[in-house]
Amino acid sequence: MATFELYRRSTIGMCLTETLDEMVSSGTLSPELAIQVLVQFDKSMTDALENQVKSKVNIKGHLHTYRFCDNVWTFILTDAQFKNDETTEQVGKVKIVACDSKLLSQ
Amino acid sequence: MASSNVSTVYISVIDDVISKVREDFITYGVGDAVLNELQALWEMKMLHCGAISGNIDRTKAAAASAGGTAGTTPPVHDLNVPYEATSEEYATPTADMLFPPTPLQTPIQTPLPGTDAGMYNIPTAPSDYAPSPISDVRNGITINGSDPKTGRPSPYMPPPSPWMNQRPLGVDVNVAYVESREDPERSVQPQQLTQDFLMMSSGKRKRDEYPGQLPSGSFVPQQDGSADKIVEFVVSKENEHQLRSFVINKQETSTKTVNPVIPQCDGIQDDYNDQFLFPGVPTEDYNTPGESAEYRAPTPAVGTPKPRNDAGDDDDEPPLNEDDDDDDELDDLEQGEDEPNTQHLVLAQFDKVTRTKNRWKCTLKDGIMHLNGRDVLFNKATGEFDF
């Protein structure tokens, strides 16, 4: 199963990465094993998002920058509004990084 | 609602990961204790981030699964560290390869326009005058309000009194002269040696003022490069007056380009300047502040009080450059805000991205959003942006 390392940059991914890093540098964990954990995280996170999350979001904003490189879209929005069923979040500047979903199904 | 939901998802992910790597840990010969430590650390960090709430059923599950070894798990250190830092280190091997440019560079690139402008403007300014005001301002060091005007390089090390009479900085400058001499001699006579040198160069710049402000033997570096006159010189106390009168004579004959109004701030003969003041020049600003004040707070004085002959160019320039600095700083600030934890980020997969003229539409799925310090997950998202 293909996975994205994309989600490692999320909060949960960062926390895991940080943890692994500490454990590797302290010698508790081997780097190989740490990589294994990260790979597993990629899978688990993707699974969870696919299967456990049902919410929808609408995004509006001014597109400040766009980039499509290596099948990754990057958008930088200014004055963006994120609306879902429950709340609306307003942010002055946000970056959206999106991988091609088709790559996963291959 | 959302947050609890997110928390639940996160916890399930943690559980999932932990349970699925257990085999790997075993095959690597690593005990459960390590795995539990990993989980504990991870959850702890998540709690610190506020990504998960501590009082979730998950807690029980964790306790159930890891409870036995929980005791052995070493208490986690305080982890308020922004996760960006670690991400770099760790991501280096893997994540970086996937998204090298996107994460870090994007924010940096955006500011470039501003930066460019700043860089562009600097050269535009007259080479003579622009640099010194800038450097003065940046260093927070301004000796004289008139400095920028004369295009004089910002003085070296303002602190006046400490080494006033002691080791003259000028020694370095005059190494060539002193070199041949032995140390003892040098210590005794350095001032005289430099004096001659000074006399020669002193004529041009009203430097006479400096002797008062700068410690004897101090030198003023040449910073802006072009068209600047070299102003390095050393003056001993004894010769201060001599030098001064010498320069004064020159000043009287000198052209308007030279700014006679250089504040005398050393407390010695402060009135001295008055003779040379042009009518209408706000001299009080310069003279009133004591030595230290001159050095520290003069920035404003530099830019403002300049209605003089050649001041026209200078007046225009310094403010411009200062503005540029401000702009840059603002840009940096904006940038800076994005970098830290407050960075708003959406990580997702895209199904489709289309554009019609300046109207962009995209459909995303399976996303993690970090907005305003909170994580929000979505299964689908539609975006409409105008470029």
UniProtKB/TrEMBL annotation, chain A:
Q: Main subcellular localization, coarse class? A: nucleus
Q: Name one GO molecular function term.
A: translation initiation factor activity
- One annotated GO biological process: transcription initiation at RNA polymerase II promoter
The domain of life is Eukaryota
Tell me the Pfam families matching this sequence: TFIIA_gamma_C, TFIIA_gamma_N
Q: Write out the entry's keywords from A to Z.
A: Initiation factor, Nucleus, Protein biosynthesis, Transcription, Transcription regulation
Transcription initiation factor IIA gamma subunit C-terminal domain span: 60-101
Which SUPFAM superfamilies does the annotation name?
A: Transcription factor IIA (TFIIA), alpha-helical domain, Transcription factor IIA (TFIIA), beta-barrel domain
Q: What does this protein do?
A: TFIIA is a component of the transcription machinery of RNA polymerase II and plays an important role in transcriptional activation. TFIIA in a complex with TBP mediates transcriptional activity. Protein involved in the resistance to X.oryzae.
Question: Record's family?
Answer: Belongs to the TFIIA subunit 2 family.
This protein is called: Transcription initiation factor IIA subunit 2
**Species the sequence originates in:** Digitaria exilis
TrEMBL record, chain B:
User: What transmembrane ranges does the database entry give?
Assistant: none
Q: Which CDD domains match?
A: TFIIA_alpha_beta_like
Q: Where is this region: Disordered?
A: 273-343
Return any one Pfam family short name. TFIIA
Q: Tell me the InterPro entries matching this sequence.
A: TFIIA_asu/bsu, TFIIA_b-brl
Q: Name one GO cellular component term.
A: transcription factor TFIIA complex
Q: Does the keyword Nucleus apply?
A: yes
* Keywords, sorted A to Z: Nucleus, Transcription
Indicate, by first and last residue, each region the UniProt record lists as having compositional bias (Acidic residues): 312-340
Subcellular localization, as worded in the UniProt entry: Nucleus
Chief location of this protein within or outside the cell: nucleus
Give GO terms for biological process: transcription initiation at RNA polymerase II promoter
Q: Give the record's family classification.
A: Belongs to the TFIIA subunit 1 family.
Name the record gives this protein = Uncharacterized protein
This protein's species is Digitaria exilis
